Amino acid sequence: MKHFLFLNNKQENKEKIRKLLLDVKEKFDNSKLLIKINSVTFLEKKNFNAFDSRFGSKLNSKNEYEYCLIMDFEDVKDLNFFYGSTESSEYRELIYKIINPTIIQNFEALLKFESESDKINQMIQIEKIMQKYISRMDFVVNDPTEEIVDFLIK
Description:
Elements lengths: L1 E6 L6 H17 L6 E8 L22 E7 L2 H9 L1 H14 L4 H9 L3 H15 L3 E6 L4 H10 L1
Antiparallel strand pairs: 1-3, 1-4, 2-3
Helix pairs in contact: 1-3, 4-5
């Protein structure tokens, strides 16, 4: 199970972000939580001109994000556990604050709310604000041999 986190951020924060994201893996690897993160890869965008060799035309590429974090989880259960963990929420907050310091006031307000619905609504607003800075996508690794084994077992 692959978890991709695309970040749009200023160059001066690169090392803070890299360290924080790699701390995520270390924290989960050293915890007693029943979760397996196989690997964490931190990538920086490389700008170069790509051309189609047959037709000589420039190839389009998305330039929205500067960095990409790829976390490889053992399975969907581990990714779901990661999303639902307090640690993941705390790291998410720290990442958001580094990428967009104006979001700090939104988190301060969030922590003051007592009702669950107010907290949910505030977090929805935070996610909307952060959409221009961050995008996450999750992909399952389709292994055809798994389907064959599952079929044979049944």
